[in-house]
Structures are given as C-alpha cells and as structure tokens.
Design brief:
Elements (H helix, E strand, L loop, with lengths): L3 H16 L7 H12 L4 E2 L2 E4 L5 E4 L2 E2 L6 H4 L13
Antiparallel strand pairs: 1-4, 2-3
Helix pairs in contact: 1-2
Bound molecules: iron/sulfur cluster.
C-alpha cells in the first residue's frame, strides 16, 4: 500500500525529471531513500500540509548531519547519507 507521502513524492519526481531530466536517481531508489530519511532521527522539521484534496501530506525537512534539504538530496545521483543508511 502506498501512502499519500509516497504518492506526492512520485508526482514530484516526475515533475523534476521533466523539468531537469539529468542527474537524478531512479524512482524506486528515491522512494527507498525517502522512507529511510522519514524514519531517521537526524531528519528535522518535517512539514505537514494538506493537498488540494485535503489529504495530509508530509515533506521531509533537513538532515541535521549534513545540513541538506532532503527533498532535494534524495533525488540526486551521487548523493550519499553521511550516516551510511543509503
Ligand atoms: S541523509 Fe542519512 S542521516 Fe540524514 S536524515 Fe537521511 S538517513 Fe538520516
């Protein structure tokens, strides 16, 4: 079963790929990273907001180890988790 957050991520990935198209990871890798970061104690400032359909969605915040914005970090090729989780 997919969550609203994963569905949101799929849409965001397609948008970014269509816009930029280069240097991005495969969708399954990005989703795996999202799930790992979502449950990590180093992930901060997770935001909750309502979509246009009033479904609550979650957007990853920053990583307290590397300081990166995770919604950008997880989609880029050659990025690594400093804690070795992905
Ligand atoms: S990049 Fe690594 S350390 Fe940072 S939030 Fe994600 S899993 Fe945690």
């Amino acid at each position: 079963m997919t969550t609203p957050s994963i569905n949101l991520l799929s849409g965001a990935i397609k948008y970014i790929k269509a816009t930029i198209g280069v240097g991005l990871e495969k969708e399954d890798v990005i989703k795996k990273r999202y799930t790992i970061c979502e449950g990590c104690e180093h992930m901060t400032k997770q935001k909750k907001f309502l979509s246009q359909t009033n479904v609550e969605l979650k957007k990853l915040g920053k990583c307290s180890l590397c300081g990166c914005f995770l919604m950008k970090k997880i989609v880029l090729k050659n990025e690594k988790c400093l804690d070795g989780r992905w």
